[in-house]
Amino acid sequence: MDSVTTAAPISPLRQRMQHDMMMRGLGPHTQKDYIRHVRRLAAFLDRPPDTASEEDLRRFQVHQHEAGASVPTINGTVSALRFFFGVTLRRRDLARSLVAMRRPYKAPEVLSVEEAARLLEAAPGIKYKAALGVAYGAGLRVSEVAHLKIDDIDSERMLLRVEQGKGQRDRNAMLSPHLLELLRMWWREGKRRGVMFPHGWLFPGRSYTDPISTRQLHRAVQEAAEAAGIRKRVGPHTLRHSFATHLLEQDVDIRIIQVLLGHAKLDTTAIYTKVSTRTIQAVASPLDRIIALMDDQERTASPPG
């Protein structure tokens, strides 16, 4: 007799938290992460998470540090538990007791224009050249590249439609003539291979019904960087960083770059002023001004020849 397996029932507490997240518009990935972090707390306590005390949360955070958890993991846990205790349980006293870590600032790795050209040229095939071309030519995040559909290309208005990007926001990205031609080359090749379908994914995965995975795009960038002899640590997001930095070096207004990147805050876009070599080179050193002043004084003090 065949056995029938049923999914474990969802507890009322978890269901309440899921409803709270849904009503506040949290994305599916965020919801999944928040549930996972709360389950880790419950496993540490070996009892339901809503029974935790302030001392329990302190012990849990100490445990994370001693276990060598990364800064993003710790801060992700803090965000999840602050939501759980502050919103679902309405225990803001416990939510306030959680301590986030300050993430050390690291300037984003950026390719030169010449390196970006070499990397795209070394991409493993037209499909990946087109996908990486979108990451660099339009500044899209890797997940946004992966989830583009054929209908998202607006060749009349020269725009790429990004649906439900980070923060559940839709936006338009730029579509340059060269990028459009690259995408048309891939479309023709994809049609020849039989993997392009009306209203389907622009970059299908191993099955045409699924989009390409972000892992495949990461692997393609690393293969291309190795083939191009680029020794920097690069990934798809490096192309997005390079897009923003190169626009800034072309004197594009930073507010326009903010819109193209889909940043909610200008402060996020401003990090590229720290890596733009042209921005740094355009600033006059105070030492140069002093030397110039001293030279002027010396010329003034010297008798005429």
TrEMBL record:
Residues 106-285 form the Tyr recombinase domain. InterPro entries: CB, DNA_brk_join_enz, Integrase-like_cat_sf, Integrase_catalytic, Integrase_recombinase_N, Integrase_SAM-like_N, Tyrosine_recombinase_XerCD. Keywords: DNA integration, DNA recombination, DNA-binding. GO terms for biological process: DNA integration; DNA recombination. It comes from the Bacteria. GO terms for molecular function: DNA binding. Residues 8-89 form the Core-binding (CB) domain. PANTHER family: PHAGE INTEGRASE-RELATED, PROPHAGE INTEGRASE INTD-RELATED. Belongs to the 'phage' integrase family. This is Integrase. It comes from Sandaracinobacter neustonicus.
